[in-house]
Model the fold of this input.
Amino acid sequence: MQKGQKIPIYSVFTGRTENLERVEKTDSEWKAILTADQYEVARKKGTEPAFTGKYHDCKEPGLYRCACCGTDLFSSDRKFGSGTGWPSFSAPVSPLNVLSAPDRSYGMVRTEVLCARCGAHLGHVFDDGPAPAFKRYCMNSASLAFIRRSQTIQKSV
Ligand SMILES: [Zn+2]
Done:
């Protein structure tokens, strides 16, 4: 990826796709703005233990953004109770806003999900989600920042 390259990102606030610069920072820059848990999961591809994250049982209406760069990632409208202990969604707010990559770590073949704008590790996507798409985006709370819908509305005014 070229530095300063612009990529299309969908904004829930405006309902539009905008060309935004990729967010690139060094490890020490990320460390300075993230908590230890956020850094370990989002920048070092860690996984928070099941049922420990702050959003696995969150049922509030709102928007889940990237904890690193603020990109809109998932809506509560597509969140479902997977019973896995991680926040689970059937789809992102837009396919533009996430990237996927093959992950062969730990002797498994999985599909990693990353923030399209800053490359944060978000979690993995599996094919056992609800109909009709059967996708289960199994995310780490540490990589997400939740905004309640009432706050979302205020910010969009
Ligand atoms: Zn991001």
In short: Residues 66, 68-69, 71, 115, 117-118, 120 surround zinc ion (CB under 6 Å). The first strand starts at residue 6 and ends at 11.
